[in-house]
Amino acid sequence: MAYKEEKKTSMHLGRIQQGKDESLRSNVRRFSLVSGQIPDLPDGVAFDNFLRGLKKGSFKFDLVRKSVRTMADALDEAESFIHATDICSVPKESKGTETADHPKCKDKTDKKTKRPNGTWSMEKKGYQANSSQGQKRGRPYDKEKF
Fold it and tell me: Which stretches are tagged as biased composition: Basic and acidic residues (predicted)?
């Protein structure tokens, strides 16, 4: 007896649920693989099953808020959401190298001064960094006479 592959129907789409820790990218990939195997799949059925299978979260909320009604629009939104998520979740190692080169990001390590009690302080222009304990720091306006 030869193995006969089961013909996929829209009922298979209803079983595709995004896992608790599953990424949107992975869920879209799985859904697309199964939906591509279903002949003459109505767009509304595909969209309904896709939306029902998504876990609660910001992407599902965005689809509802934006009144997305077609599978093509949902996949476009998914692609945009995945891209934005990838950009916003850059690993910390590469964030450090990118921010160091960025003109608006300043390195604050050379502005740190050690206080007499052993804690660190950020040095500000116009202030005395190494004042002795118990004395007030000099203020820029203290030096001027009115």
Answer: 92-110
With b meaning 16 or more CB within 10 Å and e meaning fewer, what string describes 108-129? Answer: eeeeeeeeeeeeeeeeeeeeee
pLDDT digits (tens, 9 = 90+) for 8-61: 888 989 999 999 999 999 999 999 999 999 999 999 999 999 999 999 999 999
**Crossing angle of helices 71-88 and 58-65, rounded to 10°:** 140
Of the candidate CATH numbers 2.40.30, 1.20.120, 1.10.1200, 3.40.50, the domain formed by 10-89 belongs to 1.10.1200
Q: Give the whole-angstrom CA distance, residue 74 versus residue 47.
A: 8
Cβ–Cβ under 8 Å, residues 120 and 109: no
Domain range annotation of the chain: 10-89, 96-142
d(CA 146, CA 62): 59
Q: Beta strands of the chain (E only): which ranges?
A: 112-114, 120-122
